[in-house]
Structures are given as C-alpha cells and as structure tokens.
Amino acid sequence: MYKLMLLLAFSLLARPAALEAQQVISGNVRNSETGEAVPAVSVKARNTPNGDYTNNQGNFRFHTRAPLPLTLVFSSLGFATQEVTVTTNAPVQVRLQPATVLGTEVVVSASRHVQRKIESPVTIERIDNKDVINSPQTSYYNMLQGLKGVDITTSSLTFTTVTTRGFNTSGNTNFTQVVDGMDNQAPGLNFPLGAAIGLTELDVDNLEVLSGASSALYGSRGLNGTLVMTGKDPFKYQGLSIQVTQGINHLKKGNGNDPMGPSPYYDWVVRWGKKVNDRLAFKINAQYTLAKDWMATDTSNTNSSGTRFTDPNYNAVNGYGSKTSVDINPFLEAAKAMDPSLAPIVDPLLAKPSNYVARTGYPEYGYLSNEAKLLKLNAEVRYKIKPKLEAIVSGTYGEGNAVYSNDTRYALTGYKLGLYRAELRGEQWFFRAYTSSENSGNTIIASPTAQLLNEAWKPSFNPNTMDGWYPQYTGALIQALATGSSLQDAHLAARSFADQGRPEAGSAMFNRLKDSISGLPTSQGGTLFLDRSKLYNAEFQYNFSRLIPFAEIIAGLNYRLYKLDSKGTLFPDTDGPIHVAEYSAYAHLAKKLIDNKLRLGAAFRYDKNTLFEKPRITSRLSTVLEVAKENYLRFSYQNAYSFPSNIQSLQSTLMDYNTYASGGSARLLYGEYGFDQYPPYLLNSVLEYQQTNDPSKLKRFTPSDIKPQSVDAFELGYSALFGNCVLVDVLGYYSTWKNFIGYVNVANTPGTTDVTAFKERSKYIAYNIAYNGAETVNTYGYAASVSVDMSHNFMAKANFSSDFLQNRNNSQINNFNTPNWKFNVEFGNNGLGKKQQLSFNTSLRYKPAYFYAIGLASGTIPANVVIDAQVSYKLLKAHSRIKLGATNLTNRYYYTGFGSPAIGAVYYVTLAYNVF
C-alpha cells in the first residue's frame, strides 16, 4: 500500500500539467539580427497565470486552460518587448529586435518591490548576468569595485570585502550581504567571507548594491550599504553550462612585492538547470578555484622609521613574532651588578630611559600557507504548487582557504560554511526559513602563533635558569661592544648570536612547533579558535497593495537566533553555546501623486536584540519627482544602526595568546557585560598604550558598556535618460554618526595602577578594545556616473565618487579607509560583426594615494591605476565562447589595504560552453 501511494504521488508530481491542460503553447525565439537563439526570454500569456522561459535553444512550451486566441508577451533585457497573437496550437516563431538597456533596468532591493532603476528613491547600482559574461574580471565579486561609490579591500585572492561611502576594512561588520533573501554572514564573526557561500560564477542573475544606510529595510549592520545577490531561476535558465578558466599570476618575482614566481590559476564552474515540467525544476552548481595566493610583504617598521638593520626593536607590518618587545635595561643592570667592570660599556646604554629589543619575526611567505582555494556547491529544487505559489528548497556549501587582515593576519585554513533554506512564495507574499553554520577550520593567527613559536623554541626569559633569548642577546651585545664594535653592529651581532639554531620557516622543526601551537585551542594556551556557531532565521512578508489599493504597502516580520559556539575560544561560552535573539518588524509604504509624477515613500523597522535593553527603531523617508520625461529628482532621509557584532557585544577573549616574555597576553577584548565581571582581565586598571614605548605618555582608559551605533543620512540625487542613449546619475550625501564604534589599543598591569610599572613591558597585558567614541562623526560626499549607448553594441561608462570624514576621533581606529576621490572608466562592445561573434571589454580604475588604518598597522596606500581587459569570440556551432583576458593588465602591483598583499596581474584564457 505504501509503495502504491508513493507511485501515485510521483505520477501526480511528474504529470500534473498534462491532466489539467487544454492548450499547449510552444515556439522558438531568435535574435532578429543574428538569427541566434535567445535563452531566458519571458513568455507570458496575457490575462492568465501561465507562461514559460525560453531554454538555451530558444524554445518554449507551456500549458494553459485559457481559450484561443491568446496574446503572448515576449520580454528580455536587451531586447524590445514584443506581442504575438496565437490563434492555433502551431509552434510560434518569434524574432526579437535588440534594444538598448539604458533606462530599462529594474531593481528590487531599493524598496523591496520591482521598479525601474532610474526611478529608485535611493542610490543603487546593478550588475546582471550579461555584465558578468562580458567582464574582464575573473570573479563577479571583484566587478563590484568598478561601481560608483564602492570600495573593496582584497586581503587575499579568495577574500574580498565590499563597502560603500568610506568605512572600508577587511571583514566589515557594517555591510550587509544577502543571497537569495538570506543573510550570508559568518554567524560568529558577523561579516560575510566574501563570496564563500555566495553564488557561483554561472549562477548570477543579478547583483544590486545599495549605497549607505539601509537598516530600515534590511536590519542591523546595514550602515555602510547592502549587497543583494540573486541566483538564476531554473525555470528561466535551463541547460548544462560549463566554464573553464586557466591562468597565470605572480609574474614579477623579486620586485619587493611578490616573493613567488609564475604560478597557475584554475577556476572551473559547472551549472545544470532543468525544467522537468511546468511545475518542477531544479539546478545544481559547483565551482572550484585553486591558485597561489598573494602574500603580504610590507617591511615597514611599526615601532619607528628604522630598518631591521638599524633598529633593534624592528617589527615589520608583515613580520610575525617580533611584537614580543622587551626593555633590556634590567638585563644590562643585572650584568653590571655581576661584573662592575662592565660599567664603562653598560652605563652609556643605561643613560637612555629604555632600550627596547624585539625578537626576530618571520615573513609571511614561507610562514602562512599560500594555497588559495575555494569550493562552492549549490543545489535548488522549485515546485509550483499553483501557477503563482511556489515552494523552494536550496542548500549551499563552501569551504576553502583565505586570509584576512585585522589586528594581525588570519589564515583561515579549511574553513567550512553552510547555508540552507526552505521557502514558500506567493504572488503577494513569502515565508522563508534558513540556517547557516560555520566551522573555522584550522585558523592560523599569524602574530601570536609566531610569538609562541619563538617562545617554544627558546623562551625570552626563564626565571628559573636566569637564561633565555634576552639574557643571551644582552650578553652578546656587551661582548660585541667590548671588542670595539659600533652600537649598530653590536646589536646585529647580538641578534645573530641569540638566534643561533632558530628554526627556518618551512623546516620540520618549524612546522612541528607551528602545528602544535596553532592546533591547540586558545582556552588551553594555543592560538586555535573553534568557532562552530549557527544562525537560524525566519521571515514573513506580505504585499497589501491589492487589499489596500490607494497605496503600495509591504510589511514583514523577522526572527533571528544566533547560537554562538566557540568552546570558550572566541566567546565566554565554556559552559555551552550562548543564544542571542533578534526580533524585527518592518513596513514600507509608497504613494504616487500628481498624475504619478510624484512618488512618496516611507519605511519603518523595529528591532530588538536580547543583549540590549532598548529596541531600535529606524526609518527611511523618500521622494521621487519626475521633473521631465525620463528625468527624476530624488531625496531621501535614512536612519540606520547596528547592534555591535556578537564579539563586540559579549565581553570575551577573542584571542588568548602569550605575547610578552613573562607570559603576558594580548587579546582583542570587547564589552557589553560589565568589564569587572571577569576578574582575569582586571580592566578597572586598564591604561591606554600609545605605541611610543614611553610610559610617561600612557593615559588612563576608562571602559564602558558598548552601545549600538547609528547614522542619520541625507541624500539628494538626479537621474535622467537623454535620447534613449545617455544615462546620467548624480548625487550628494551627508551623514551624522552617533556612538561611533572604533578600536583602541590598551594595556593592563594586573594588581597595580602605577603607570611606571609599564616600563617593564614584559609584565603587562595588551588588549584591543571596541568602544563608542564620544564625538559625533560626520561623513559627506558626492558622485556622478554616465553611461552612453554608442550604437552597434558599443557602450561607454564612467563614474566618479568622493567621500570625506569630519570630526575624526584620532584616539580610535575608525576604518574610514578610502581616498577623497576616485574614478572608473569602462568601454566595450558585446557583439561585433554580422553575427556578433566578437566582443571585448576594458576598464580602468584610478585611486590617488590615501591613508589606511586597521588594528594591524596604518600607513599610506600609494596611488594606483588598474586596467582590466578581455576579448571574446563565439563558436556558434559549438555553442561556446573563448575569452582571453587579464586583470591588472600592466602587472603594476597595487594595494587595496594596508598590511594586505600587493596584487599583481592574472592573465587567463576561458572556454565557456552554453554561456551567453
């Protein structure tokens, strides 16, 4: 009986349309100029719920109970909409006329409903799948840096962070990233790991970037903007697609930026979309990227302007292990006490208040793995219960290696992320539930791991034996001075002596020590954090426009639960996972007036986080006025906020590792719970350390509970389409930030509040604390873009943007890391010749020099000009395309973040099947 029921259910699933249909409508759609099949064309039977999309051969077929004659509406981006009347069941042959896309693009994320981009109430940028195909970039994610007002930081080949309007850093917690309606942040870290569980390269339908504040529609952490990624519908995009990219990078070994020689680059992508029948469709995606990563090689000294040859306290930005720095005056005094005859040598040294010496560090190359890889898998099934009621189940999994920069470099080795959803979607509503999970893998925290490695090989100082690296260094220094060496040469000789037998990077001993330290959890004295956090989210939204016809009203509810699970290595969760919940309700209202020339909008959102007593209410008010045909003036006010990230909200030990000679610790420390609740930190005696090595310049730092930060943003913009061939957009914005969250380096001497105790640095604990600045911070800027359709498939684009920060709190690391101005230019053609087989695209990005600061270090990013280019040729009979391209064509290495690697060229060839 059970098997019979299953058989009956399957037969109903596989052939429901055949049981109900009275008419079968079919046909073929082709490009009127080239005769080429046009896939993914929307075919709708007017005044019915029935329709289809053309497949990769341009064919369509659907069932309808509506009687003939029927009017079919054919529409696709890049083609003029066409209507055809059908009077018989004979297949329909349609030829679509190519048309400009300018002014026809539609967006959804600006107001949570479909509208033309030119009529959007806020600034929004869009990339569609055709842009991805014609881009010279090897990844759609890197295409974002060419958009107006967008900044990126590339920390490694597989980890790029996106933001807008100035606040740019690696791992930005104030930028929201949404994939098919799901927030794809790493649940514990509260920022997305680039495109790790984003869409695969062949599954991008479109990307939309909302600039600036967007909390009213998308909740907490939308202060710096929102990226909304939409994958391809398997009903619309059908067939098997394959794309293989083979390339080469690291072509300038030994130029100071790149220690590696030429290395292969591989990127393989496959997508299979299948419409089983009118109701059932599925897709499967896979992408694998493998290459040698860019390595950070900045040798700038964070302690002074000296070099490793001239400064005994040398600590390179990308040198790891040399943050262990001790004043050797006590060792000099001890040597003099044991042998008073050394006074003529030692006394001139002791005349200085301090003589700091850093241990020898390891460069990143040879220490951190340079194997960049990323595997992404995705599967989705869609079933139409009714023509306008659809069920969706999907799963996305990503794993790989990446590196990002914060207070040091973090090599995320073997991380794993998962994102899974179930959704019901009606014409006016949807209910979506999803969960995401993370596994931090074997993450190498560069600086502390190297410091502990140095200590494991040879302790800085062993009080039991009165020996160690620093006593040996001091003895060798005195010996060299006694034999007539200069002070500089004596320091070099002392380091050489103390470093005798030090394991070389990559040696068996080095790897054994590194693995033992990085494989031991922070809670047990190592540097491994065990993040196994999860996020659960449920959301319901309803469009009331049919029930309330005088206005467009959309409202929704959202519930989110974080299950923070780090086994005591990231959060104070040694007794079990910590649960943090967020409750939200939102509404968006819009009304058209004055013959639909004026559109007023308002959005409101209520959010409550269980870590904070007070809820947050945010809003957006907007006006769009059509001042002339295809000329739109917009004004908006947006209020946005962010609850501090889970790490910021929970006072915890993000990193628990020895830093200094006597076993002190350096930690990133945050506070929402009272600072005095965790006695090991003794934060009532915290003092701020100004990185000058001068105790007299320390000042007391008074911590307090961290609060949500907020921003009030005003924007005035203008969009216009001239002659159907020139699209212009200009804007200006002004924002006011309150309770701005920044970071500061502080230091603590357990058991004392005496500032002079800091003279011996080996006896204090250093922290990096997030806190609210008292000052009100203002940002402002302006931007403009122009797109020109030059006919015959030629397109030129240019944009300019500018961002400024006022009232900078210089005691905070504020992550406002962007030049005051920058511009991008693009020129290309997506179809040359009679059959439009040849295409090309070029882009140029320019940024002047600008200041960049993060916890790791700060400095000036040099000015850079980056050119990307590609040329493609279609093999029509093979339904394939060959692309030759290069990113950073001139191979002039450039930086996007201080302490991050210099980026060189990638030259590549791509063979794509069924990708048009």
From TrEMBL:
Gene3D superfamilies: Carboxypeptidase-like, regulatory domain (2.60.40.1120), TonB-dependent receptor, beta-barrel domain (2.40.170.20), TonB-dependent receptor, plug domain (2.170.130.10). Keywords: Cell outer membrane, Membrane, Receptor, Signal, Transmembrane, Transmembrane beta strand, Transmembrane helix, Transport. It comes from the Bacteria. GO terms for biological process: siderophore transmembrane transport. Residues 1-21 form the signal peptide. It is a multi-pass membrane protein. SUPFAM superfamilies: Carboxypeptidase regulatory domain-like, Porins. Residues 117-226 form the TonB-dependent receptor plug domain. The chain crosses the membrane at residues 849-873, 893-913. One of its GO terms (molecular function) is siderophore uptake transmembrane transporter activity. It is found in: Cell outer membrane. InterPro entries: Beta-barrel_TonB_sf, CarboxyPept-like_regulatory, Plug_dom, Plug_dom_sf, TonB-dep_rcpt-like. Pfam families: CarbopepD_reg_2, Plug. GO terms for cellular component: cell outer membrane. Belongs to the TonB-dependent receptor family. This is TonB-dependent receptor. It comes from Chitinophaga lutea.
